[in-house]
Amino acid sequence: MKISDGQAVGAYQQQGSCEKAAVVLGVNAETIRLRLIRAGIPRPRKHRPFSVAEIEQIRAEYAVYRNAGRIKDFAHRLGRTPQALQGQASKLGLGSRDFSGRLWPVGKHMSAEAARVLFESFLAARVPVAKFCAQHGYRRGTFSELLRRHFPDEWDLAVEQATPRQRPYQRGREFEYRVRDFLKTRGFVVLRSPRSGSPLDLIAVGAGRVLFVQCKKDGHLPPNEWNTLYDLAAPVAALALLAQAPTGRGIVFHRLVSRKEGHQPQPYEVFVP
Fold it and tell me: What is the pLDDT of residues 241-271, one digit of tens each?
């Protein structure tokens, strides 16, 4: 992109640095410096001192961007050159290959942008949490707490997908997440059951309706579980639903219309949320 000397001078005077002016105009910092010299402006310092706030941000987030191979993105956020950022990181002891990327105590101060970079790195790695943390020197507990706080609706599913699919309950949990996300697209506020073995998997509230949902991919719900779910829903005027995926794709909902006794056919009717 071509810019005039006047544009460079104006952006520099407004932003206070070549790096920030370059970001605003969509060029590199060296272009700004050359335009300033040609316009008779004294050559600015190549790198302005890093502020206390910037240094704290670098301490908190540099390892995340470095491990993700995205130092340029971090430099752009700060309005700095990658070289200046790496130089400051080295002064802080963050540039060594032996540096541990621990997230504590700085993890709790991490920005949403840096947390997103960390989360995307974890998704791309496709390895369990313990292995990912070991590879990068992160403390597992702090890592999980940080990402769960920033991405409460995505974290559990990401962990399940990164875990080898060897257990039936893991496949069941994935289906549960699918049902949850589908109901959210229909305007419901959805809460997951806090523990495994609960008589219901999801509670959905919206449009004057409360749904108690049991997720069974194969659609099989034994009489005792059926009746427990029905009995929980009836006193509070909630709808007891069975969510299933008979073909392996899509989601089908059935509303339980009565208790189930013995080997009678399942008393339900098709329900559309």
Answer: 999 987 777 899 999 999 988 667 778 899 9
Residue 190 sits in a domain of what CATH number?
3.40.1350.10
Distance of CA 131 to the CA centre of its chain: 19
* Percent helix, strand and coil across the chain, each to the nearest 5: 50, 10, 35
Last residue of a domain, one of 120, 137, 161: 161
pTM of the model: 0.53
Pick the last residue of a domain from 128, 161, 194: 161
Q: What angle do CA 213, 218, 220 make, to 5 degrees?
A: 70
Angstrom CA distances, 49 to 55, 77, 88, stand at 10, 16, 10
Domain that holds residue 31: 5-38
pLDDT confidence band for 116 (50 / 70 / 90): very high
